[in-house]
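Quick illustration, no need to memorize.
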Amino acid sequence: MEEMTPAKPRGAGGRKAASWTQDPEGVRRNILAVARAEFVENGLSGARVDEIAAKTSTSKRMIYYYFGDKEGLYRAVLEEMYARIRNFERSLDLAVLPPREAIATLAGFTFDYHADNPDFVRLVMVENIHHARHLENSAKIGELNLSVIDMIREIYERGRREGAFREGLDPIDIHLTISALSFYNVSNRASIRQVFGHDMGAPGARERRRASTIDTVLRMLAS
């Protein structure tokens, strides 16, 4: 691939060039937002950089300048989405809450985040189709995701010392239980509706599943 430079962006006249020079970070965010929608709808294989460029405020050439290639763009979208959920988790300030309340808050937040952000679930499903090779190639995502395990470890150790939580649990198992219960409620919504005529996204059903998720996690931890 030829070396890309920001000096001569190709696009619709001066508007796209001006966008790059006036707000390069805004252009990058715009590319990522459009790309996310394309990858969610069409997967990595089906998404086309031409289509993404046509819907952004920049050009295909500048997309390559920012991200290198389509896989680099896809990896950047994954990194942004994982960073977002991890940042929200840190904002919960769970260290100030009693252990049971802290883990219940985290479980409830995780359930709501997945339900409110189905694009995140869809992209994780896409990445699993590709055997997580883009996650493997992103040191950033690996570092980001350690924070939730550290958070759960701190809550669990406090609860264990206080006698609220039982001995012998691994923080990763706690995280996987919370994630599985939250993820399935979105990933399998269409098939459950078709097979059982039950809409897991309906308000009443969602609230029941949320309460069940929190209860299941607390029972798993109970001393």
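The chain has two domains: 13-68, 73-221.
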